[in-house]
Specification:
mainly alpha, rod-shaped
Length: 121
């Protein structure tokens, strides 16, 4: 009977140790689940940030395309204005040569007029 009581005490203490180990393991399991939840929420936040940054990248690419097309338009306008400037320079040269020719013609005509007057006298 004493042996049975000792065995009962040993088994009950072993049962208590097993219960304590079970509590420790369950607390570790709860801590692991909390850590898993924290890591999954961090992963969701990172995914949201990645989506935001990718949309911002798309917006930047669209702006770059718009600015490059505007740059092409500005280059075309610059070419048109430079060609117009060349045309204006050519016209200015023609008019300046004409302005040189006109006084010469005026001198020729005035000398011819003087000759005509002298001949009439």
């Amino acid at each position: 009977s004493v042996v049975c009581l000792v065995l009962l005490l040993v088994l009950s203490s072993f049962s208590v140790v097993c219960l304590v180990l079970l509590l420790v393991l369950s607390s570790f399991s709860v801590a692991y689940l909390v850590l898993l939840l924290v890591l999954s929420s961090i992963s969701v936040v990172c995914l949201v940030l990645l989506l935001v940054l990718s949309s911002f990248s798309v917006v930047c690419l669209v702006l770059l395309l718009v600015l490059s097309s505007f740059s092409v338009v500005c280059l075309v306008l610059l070419l048109v204005l430079s060609s117009f400037s060349v045309v204006c320079l050519v016209l200015l040269l023609v008019l300046s040569s004409f302005s040189v020719v006109c006084p010469v013609l005026l001198l020729v005509l005035s000398s011819f007029s003087v000759v005509c007057l002298v001949l009439l006298l």
